[in-house]
Write a structure and sequence with these properties.
The complex is a heterodimer of chains A (232) and B (286).
Chain A (H helix, E strand, L loop, with lengths): L1 E10 L2 E11 L4 E5 L6 H8 L7 E6 L2 E2 L5 H4 L4 E4 L11 H8 L7 H10 L1 H5 L10 H13 L5 E5 L7 H16 L3 E6 L2 H5 L4 E6 L2 E7 H6 L1 H7 L4
Parallel strand pairs in A: 3-8, 3-9, 6-7, 7-8
Antiparallel strand pairs in A: 1-2, 1-4, 4-5, 9-10
Chain B lengths: L1 H25 L9 H17 L4 H21 L3 H4 L4 H25 L4 E2 L8 E3 L2 E3 L1 H23 L1 H11 L1 H6 L4 H23 L5 E2 L3 H15 L4 H21 L5 H15 L11
Antiparallel strand pairs in B: 1-4, 2-3
Helix pairs in contact in B: 1-6, 1-9, 1-10, 1-11, 2-3, 2-5, 2-9, 2-10, 3-9, 6-7, 6-9, 10-11, 10-12, 11-12
The chains are: A alpha/beta (232), B mainly alpha (286).
């Protein structure tokens, strides 16, 4: 579904990620793990069209989307949920969700699916997004992306800034989506959370992919266990 | 006193309408259009020339609206393109310099080609009494148009997909892009709307005061004052600030005298900045 090849990107001519290749098949959940500063966010921003890559290729559904701007990628059914959430703070929760279905108005069914997944958003419907807690904002960011019925959800650090309990809650909701067969690509530095829930993964270190494998293979790797799972 | 408040309301609605076109454009990540007054003037001159050419007033007003819209469209497609590529403070500063230059050029051209042109729309009929105060028909018509424009804007921004998309780009451009909303199109839409609103200002204002080729700079200044008080980028703020400042200036004019009105308005704007840096309904910087 998504294929990234020899991909490099960065800021002001300084590449942060180098020669990265990976792929996500339909129905899979794939994680990119790595510590803070490894280049996960830069990689995702460049894939999703918020940053121009310096070299490499991105194919989505067999069509080349390298360097396509975010506003033209979103209508293809690939949705990005950024770690910064990028909500519309002076709009209500309801309005934020409505915009998720742009350029149409959402049907009632999609709206109720999202509100069932995040009952909290239903309670807060009339509240301004900017006044909500971090956990609620994360729910809204994911919920807003789901309003467009995406085929591929790209999540950058869904646990960022959340207390452990809320981070687990977020992953529980993502688990429901996984069971429904939604394809997801997730960057995460809280590796145990992502591991509990993905099929395959790649380890990104200093901008390079160092390791790849199924979740079981990565969990068994001594280096991964030491660096990311707190096992000595 | 009732007369001063009613006059203030009439004036305030005009202030509010004047500020909306400026505040919306500023909402595009800080594009400050100092040629906004010239937009109003160009639309007014277009109406005046069309009437002079023998067109009926209704059609001439249409010409003015087109002139305003095209002015906005041309700015969006030419002068503002390098502005859009900058972000933050450089965007504000570059837009300020470029549009100020445009204001001088437009002023110069108009003064050279049409030095004596100006627009006054005479609304016939005697005064109408409201709460015992005789009000001119022109003022009432201008106020009704302003109220209708505000209601239209509120409904548009609350209830339409395009309206919400415009607000989303103003509040978080990157977030909007992630949803497939093209900021480029939204910017063009805002600039054209701003031109249409400027034309509406030209039309309503000329129902009580002539709009001449030299009116540009003072219109921009008034729009800026109202925008600063209301909060940059806020339509509701422009409306509220317009009404408040209109009443303040009308009461101060009746108590102290017209000559101090501008000073008092500037004082009100400065006071607002001191007490609430982001304006009455503006968005505080994060």
């Amino acid at each position: 579904m998504l294929e990234v090849e020899g991909f490099s990107a960065g800021y002001q001519g300084n590449d942060v990620v180098h020669d990265v290749s990976f792929h996500v098949d339909s129905g899979e959940v794939v994680m990119i793990i790595g510590s803070n500063g490894a280049g996960k966010t830069t990689l995702f921003r460049a894939i999703c069209g918020l940053l121009s890559p310096s070299s490499g290729k991105v194919r989505y559904d067999e069509s080349d989307i390298t360097g396509t701007r975010a506003e033209h990628i979103a209508p293809l059914g690939m949705r990005f949920v950024s770690a910064e959430r990028h909500l519309f703070p002076q709009m209500t929760v309801h309005e934020n969700l409505l915009l998720g279905a742009y350029p149409r108005n959402p049907d009632h069914e999609t709206m109720s699916i999202v509100l069932d997944l995040f009952p909290r958003l239903a309670e807060r419907r009339r509240q301004h997004a900017g006044t909500m807690s971090g956990g609620e904002q994360q729910m809204l960011a994911v919920g807003r992306a789901l309003m467009s019925k995406p085929r591929l959800l790209v999540l950058d650090e869904p646990s960022t800034g959340l207390a452990p309990l809320l981070a687990r809650g977020t992953y529980e909701a993502l688990g429901v989506l996984r069971q429904q067969g939604l394809t997801m690509l997730i960057a995460e530095q809280q590796v145990p959370l992502a591991m509990a829930f993905s099929d395959r993964g790649y380890v990104l270190e200093n901008g390079y992919i160092r390791l790849e494998g199924t979740t079981e293979e990565l969990a068994a790797n001594p280096g991964v266990r030491r660096a990311y799972l707190g096992v000595t | 006193m009732t007369a001063a408040i009613l006059d203030g309301l009439v004036l305030g609605l005009q202030f509010g309408l004047l500020a909306v076109g400026l505040t919306l454009v500023y909402g595009i990540g800080g594009v400050l259009n100092l040629a906004y007054g010239q937009m109003v003037v160009v639309a007014a001159i277009a109406v005046s020339l069309a009437i002079g050419a023998g067109l009926p007033v209704g059609l001439a007003i249409g010409v003015g609206l087109v002139a305003g819209g095209v002015f906005g469209l041309l700015m969006d497609k030419t002068l503002l393109r390098p502005v859009y590529r900058r972000h933050g403070e450089p965007r504000v500063l570059l837009s300020l310099l470029l549009t100020l230059g445009l204001a001088f050029i437009v002023d110069g051209l108009l003064l050279w080609r049409y030095p004596l042109e100006g627009l006054t729309l005479h609304i016939g009929g005697g005064p109408v009494e409201i709460l015992g105060v005789p009000m001119r028909r022109g003022s009432l018509l201008a106020s009704s148009i302003a109220v209708a424009a505000f209601i239209g804007l509120f409904l548009f921004f609350r209830n339409t997909i395009l309206g919400r998309a415009v607000r989303s780009v103003i509040q978080n451009e990157e977030g909007a892009r992630m949803l497939g909303i093209d900021p480029k199109r939204v910017r063009t839409f805002i600039l054209v709307s701003s031109g249409l609103l400027a034309a509406l200002v030209a039309i309503t204002r000329s129902m009580s005061i002539p709009v001449t080729v030299t009116s540009g700079i003072s219109l921009t200044i008034f729009a800026l004052i109202v925008t600063v008080v209301g909060g940059l980028g806020s339509v509701a703020g422009a409306f509220l600030a317009g009404i408040i400042l209109g009443i303040v200036s009308s009461i101060s004019a009746s108590l102290i005298g017209t000559f101090l009105t501008l000073i008092i308005l500037l004082g009100a704007a400065a006071l607002t900045i001191l007490l609430r840096p982001s304006g009455l309904l503006g968005v505080p910087e994060e």
